[in-house]
Amino acid sequence: MKLKQQINSILLDALQQAGIEAQAVQVSDASKPEFGDYQYNGIMALAKQQKRNPREIAAEVVAHIPTDGMIARAEVAGPGFINLWLDTNWVSQSVQMLVGDARLSVDTVDTPSKVVVDYSSPNMAKQMHVGHLRSSIIGDTLANLFAFLGDEVIRQNHIGDWGTQFGMLIAYLEEMGEDGSGSLSDLEQFYKDAKGRFDADAAFADKSREYVVKLQGGDVHCLHLWDNFIDKSLGHCEEVYSKLGVNLTREDVRAESSYNDELAGIVTALDDKGLLTLSDGAQCVFLEGDENPFLVQKSDGGYLYATTDLAAIRYRVQTLGADRISYVVDARQAGHFRQLFSVARQAGFAKPDTRLEHVSFGMMLDKSGRPFKTRDGGTVKLIDLLEEAVIHAKEAITSREAYSDEELERIAEIVGIGAVKYADLSIHRDSNYIFDWDKMLSFEGNTSLYLQYAYARIQSILRRYEGEVSGAIILTTDPERALALKLLQFEDMLHRAAAESLPHYITTYLYELATLFMKFYETSPILKDDVDEVTRQNRLQLSVLTGETIQRGLGLLGIGVLERL
Fold first, then answer.
1. Is the same domain home to 62 and 98?
2. Under 8 Å between Cβ of 81 and 42
3. Are 138 and 118 in contact (CB under 8 A)?
4. Residues 82 and 93 in one domain
5. Do 34 and 174 reside in the same domain of the chain?
6. CB-based burial label for 155 (10 Å; 0-12, 13-18, 19+)
7. pTM score, two decimals?
8. Spatial distance between the Cα atoms of 163 and 414, rounded to a whole number of angstroms
9. d(Cα 168, Cα 119) in Å, to the nearest integer?
């Protein structure tokens, strides 16, 4: 049972024994040590309902909280808060149970769900750029987290591979040679060259338009060219995913084109439900409270992203059996997803209890606070950014330690890519953030490098000890107890991060854990000659558990650890 769940259960029993009706309670971590380990501040609301003094009610509840087991002390504070201290022996025994457990005693969810995570979604007509970074990182972390907690996760890469521009692109690919050798090494340049031909050559433009019609009509030759183009384009994406450590494969691709045959049926289904209104020749759904309609078919009979998105929801719910669909897409699309989810429910494409969520995120900005661009104002290619991260990482780590060339390359890759990912994940996803190499590659503060250094320090301690780590954990000092309690909170934090789709809970926890370990390390000698073996084993056990927790937490973020740094 999760730590807070156990405390909530004890508190709810005490409320009921005191004659206070409550369906559920929720304790929170105490903000300061003098306020205990946990605090309950729900008494004021209960007192207001009963028109009673909150401190009197709190005192009655405290009188029914048993203090001979998990809880050592309960006190009334302030206007009616209840402060709770956990029993140190109970904490010792509980943290002992984490030893040797590969999952660190993290339970899976009580009722597993089938979760579709829709993320990354690059356009095949262009190279992946920094605009795809946040979706790829946040989406992959959530998919890792949901799977670790026992949900059945289906990763979906909803790539943009359909539309009028593809007639132009495959016509140009044909001119360059169908195998695309060399011509697709830079998709941005390929697109610019194709557009240049389209604008300058009327015959090529006509051919491009002809190829659009043929492609949509299933022409074998055009489909062959299109398949070739998509294959080469996906190769660029796979290079980025590999370097970024994102777990998306070709098996996870469910492209826009895959729903093409379903779009007419989507419009018919909406019409059958009486949801469609003809407006200026276009088929729309007008939603209460929205000034702009949800457009599903243009006046020329063409379909839109909205139509494809509806088809995707219907497929994911009715074919894949999804209980929850998480769309990791930037915050500017909030209006689209609000309308999409409303129409999908009204049409019956999603069940009433299907969880549809827009996992929104803010923008990545440069130091001046502007959208991240190249010096000439162009879009920064994602692969270039990642390669630059490795270069900056080399500069950061060689200033402290000497490495062989091979070791430097390996470590810089882990540190550099980890720094980029962690900087993104360490803030609330809805926030914009400043991309700053110096800050993200600092050995101090809430950075991946700080955590990787803490992990490496632990491994250094274990190498120097060279013996077997065993024995009971007996907490005797405040730094030991604080570290042990933080280790026990790992499970609660993960479940909360999953429930709210907020990866920064993980980074915040890991930073707090590493900070507590550093304080513990400074005040609690481990390998000194004057430390008795019982104390040494106790502190080694806590060190091992801290290292394992950092490794597990960073692993969920897709970030590696290092034995030496």
1. no
2. no
3. no
4. no
5. no
6. buried
7. 0.95
8. 38
9. 27
Looking at the structure, tell me whether residues 200 and 74 fall in a common domain: no
Flag whether pLDDT at 178 surpasses 70: no
Q: How far apart are alpha carbons 348 and 166 in whole angstroms? A: 33
Sequence-distant (6+) residues with CB within 8 A of 493 are 505, 506, 509
What is the pLDDT averaged over residues 198-209?
93
Q: Are residues 489 and 437 in the same domain?
A: yes
For residues 326 and 501, the answer to whether their CB atoms sit within 8 Å is yes
Give the total number of structural domains in the chain. 3
Kindly report the number of other CB atoms within 10 A of residue 198's CB atom.
Answer: 21
CATH code of 55's domain:
3.30.1360.70
Instruction: Work out the pLDDT band at 370, boundaries 50, 70, 90.
Output: confident
Instruction: Decide if 420 is inside a domain.
Output: yes
Residue 267 in domain: no
Distance between CA 171 and CA 153 in Å, rounded?
A: 38
- Burial degree of 218 (CB within 10 A; 0-12, 13-18, 19+): exposed
Tell me which residue range forms the domain holding 225. Answer: 165-232
For residue 282, what are its two tokens?
A: 């276009």
Residue 422 DSSP SS3? helix
Q: What are phi and psi of 274, to 5 degrees?
A: 75, 25
Q: Which of 207, 16, 232 is nearest to 124 (CA)?
A: 232
- Contact status, residue 58 vs residue 80, Cβ threshold 8 Å: yes
> How far is it, in rounded angstroms, from Cα 448 to Cα 551?
11
The span from the CA of 400 to the CA of 562, in Å, is: 15
- Identify whether 319 is part of a domain: no
Whether 536 and 466 share a structural domain: yes
Same domain, 68 and 185: no
Report yes or no on 215 lying in a domain: yes
Whether the per-residue pLDDT at 421 is higher than 90: the answer is yes
pLDDT tens-place string over residues 522-544: 999 999 989 999 999 999 999 99
**Is the CB of residue 285 less than 8 Å from the CB of residue 341?**
no
Residues 6+ apart with CB under 8 A from 419: 389, 392, 393, 440, 441, 447, 448, 449
Question: According to DSSP H, which parts of 348-381 are helical?
Answer: none
